[in-house]
Specification:
Elements (H helix, E strand, L loop, with lengths): L2 E3 L6 E3 L1 E4 L7 H7 L4 H13 L4 E3 L8 H9 L8 E6 L14 H15 L4 E6 L8 H13 L3 E7 L3 H14 L6 E5 L11 H8 L2 E5 L23 H4 L8 H18 L3 H10 L4 E6 L4 H8 L8 H11 L8 H5 L1 H6 L5
Parallel strand pairs: 3-4, 3-10, 4-5, 5-6, 6-7, 7-8, 8-9, 9-10
Antiparallel strand pairs: 1-2
Helix pairs in contact: 2-3, 2-11, 3-4, 4-5, 9-12
Length: 344
């Protein structure tokens, strides 16, 4: 397993990390993701650690906290061997104090997560979404206090717009608060919007990308095919409305090229899709999920080898989409690109 610095921090993370959204799954969304119990979760953690995957990502909204609880049981007795990333901000109830990133909510949510995880510190706490109701200064001041108290060590965000992240970083610099070092983002061959603004921002500001749904909400597993019905066991039957939008015809074209490269390399479609992501600028770690041991071992096979330059170029081409304004001139006109060349 290769390891990379997480943004401009001293924290080193594996290029593949494990998403614990399948742990303790319940409800229409998370139940469809998976229902891994504590015993199964411990076995999954064993396999991950054997492969060098020591970063485990969860959130307080995953199955109403059950994911954190199951993860806590699975890592019991080996806390020093793992890195824990969790998230907060989204509603966990209907009360006025059950959502957002106010000082009181962040303190309470962190304490509750620590209890569920069975630990006294969180390696990386991320804000699951931007809270427009709370002043950014209040958010960062509260996070600074939690770091000083030893309850969290690094901070990051997820699903932020470019201006939201940049404004937050500017306020951190102005007030001497800790900076966000991670941005958990959606990025895949079937969804490359991250590249327009968030990737250049990350490169400029030292913010590492932790990639969620790298297989486009299960669409890049190789099971979704042109002219064929959705497989009976696909979670998309229950969860498609929650996931990122994907153009079906574009998806099929991408899968066709993935099939070609799979035949050339002897690798699986998911392994190729994951390997492509690992090679992208600013990506620190790609979060893989698995409902069973077989899926986990297959995803772990995405590392230890590299796609050829021609294969990367073919994947780039088939997955490319027209950038929106104001980004498209820099990708379509040489004069614009000379002033501000795209990273990819």
């Amino acid at each position: 397993m290769d390891y990379r610095q997480l943004g401009a921090s001293g924290l080193r993370v594996p290029v593949l990390s494990f998403g614990a959204g399948t742990f303790g799954g319940s409800g229409p969304l998370f139940g469809a993701w998976g229902t891994t119990d504590a015993t199964e979760a411990r076995r999954m953690v064993d396999i991950a650690l054997e492969a060098g995957v020591n970063l485990f990502d969860t959130a307080d909204v995953y199955s109403a906290g059950a994911s954190e609880e199951v993860l806590g049981h699975a890592i019991k007795g080996r806390r020093d061997a793992v890195l824990i990333s969790t998230k907060t901000a989204l509603p966990t109830g209907d009360g006025p104090a059950d959502w957002g990133t106010s000082r009181s909510r962040l303190i309470a949510a962190t304490d509750a997560a620590l209890k569920r995880l069975g630990t006294d510190y969180i390696d990386l706490l991320q804000l699951h979404a931007f809270d427009a109701h709370t002043p950014i200064e209040e958010v960062l001041s509260a996070l600074d206090g939690l770091i000083r108290a030893g309850k969290i060590r690094y901070i990051g965000v997820s699903n932020f717009a470019g201006w939201e992240l940049m404004k937050s970083l500017g306020i951190s610099d102005r007030n001497g608060y800790p900076r966000y070092v991670a941005h958990q983002v959606y990025y895949s061959l079937a969804g490359r919007d991250y590249e327009w603004e968030l990737m250049p921002l990350a490169a400029d500001q030292g913010v590492g990308a932790l990639v969620w749904s790298p297989l486009a909400w299960g669409r890049l597993t190789g099971r979704i095919r042109r002219g064929q019905p959705l497989p009976e066991g696909s979670r998309l039957h229950q969860t498609a409305e929650y996931g990122p939008p994907v153009d079906d015809e574009k998806l099929y074209d991408i899968v066709d090229v993935l099939d070609e490269i799979a035949a050339e390399t002897g690798r699986t479609v998911p392994q190729i899709a994951l390997n492509w992501l690992i090679g992208r600028p600013t990506v620190a770690s790609v979060i893989i999920g698995a409902r069973n041991e077989e899926q986990l071992r297959q995803n772990l096979g995405a590392v230890g080898w590299s796609l050829g330059a021609d294969q990367v170029q073919r994947l780039d081409k088939v997955s490319a989409v027209t950038a929106p304004y104001p980004y498209f001139p820099y990708r379509r006109q040489e004069g614009f690109a000379r002033l501000n060349p795209p990273l990819v």
